[in-house]
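Deliverable D4.2, example record:
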Amino acid sequence: MVKVLIADDHPVVRHGLRQILATDSSVEVVGEAKNGTETLELARKLPWDVAIVDYSMPGRSGLDLLKEMKREFPQRPVLILSMYPEELHATRVLKAGGAGYINKECVGDELTSALHKVVNGGRYVSRSLAEKLAFELARDTQKPLHETLSDREYRVMWLLASGKQIHQIASELFVSPSTISTYRARIFRKLRLRTNAELVHYAIKHRLVD
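Output generated by the structure prediction step:
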């Protein structure tokens, strides 16, 4: 019997996950948590084989919770659920030790198969994400990383490297600051950078700014 721990701040989502998992007689839900603190408390006192954790919960983020769980339970797989597109966060989740990433829109079709794969030591990504990752790897060997950016991402990258602040770029492009922050995260992932200083250095090195 595969013992599962569920963590999501929405009761409806937790109920839905229980219903999906109930269709598999080899799976048993042993506990539910609505935030990161509860998740860690349950993980420390309940027997479990795999955890299904929401990427965005109040307080501690799903990514921070994932890292903490991998520190305390390095041999146990953690699957991340998210409402966000795979291309935004899946690579970050996998690098942090996540066993897989599932978009909530696809959870009904993928959850049980993903669960069994990670329990048996594998990692799970959707077929579409696997194709994207393979394509990006092949493309990365053929051209500079900044050429993988979309037109809008390139524009935001150029403005950031030119010294503009997020709110200034948002005003210039007529979008919200949160949208610019999302673009910034995509840009950093694609360019394999962590800070604005690294971005400026990259842009100067590749002669993208003066």
